[in-house]
TrEMBL record:
Residues 42-115 form the TonB C-terminal domain. Its main location: membrane. It is a single-pass membrane protein. It holds the Pfam family TonB_C. Keywords: Membrane, Transmembrane, Transmembrane helix. It comes from the Bacteria. This is TonB family protein.
Length: 123
């Protein structure tokens, strides 16, 4: 990896969680750990170069098999590249128990793309 990019790789993702839609009586039940669906390894190279970060919230529909079937951004980072990456990775990785009730067909997920603070010099 380019040394300049290596310094910029995010070391902390503050918020990454599946938000179940409680107001609708629940939501889809994830298979596996949803914290691993979108990770720092997915940070787009261009966004690293530009030091872009932000919080994105998406809503996805869950198909009969339990796989995320569609994705839309409900709260944007303000950077299309991060929003698009989040939806793309989520659609490839997110898995749920097959839905049996209508309220289990919609998942809300949020992810923070966060850069580390600038390095402190030793002086």
């Amino acid at each position: 990896m380019d040394p300049q990019l290596a310094r910029a790789v995010p070391h902390i993702v503050r918020e990454r969680r599946l938000l179940l839609l409680k107001k609708h009586g629940g939501g889809p039940i994830p298979r596996g750990n949803s914290a691993y669906w979108v990770t720092n390894d997915d940070y787009p190279t261009q966004a690293l170069r530009e030091c872009v970060e932000g919080l994105v919230r998406i809503q996805a529909s869950v198909g009969d098999s339990g796989k995320a079937a569609s994705c839309r951004v409900t709260e944007s980072t303000g950077k299309a590249l991060l929003d698009k990456t989040t939806c793309g990775v989520f659609l490839r990785r997110a898995r749920f128990r097959p839905p049996v009730a209508p309220q289990e067909r919609t998942a809300t997920y949020e992810h923070s793309w966060v850069f580390p603070p600038p390095e402190q010099d030793g002086s």
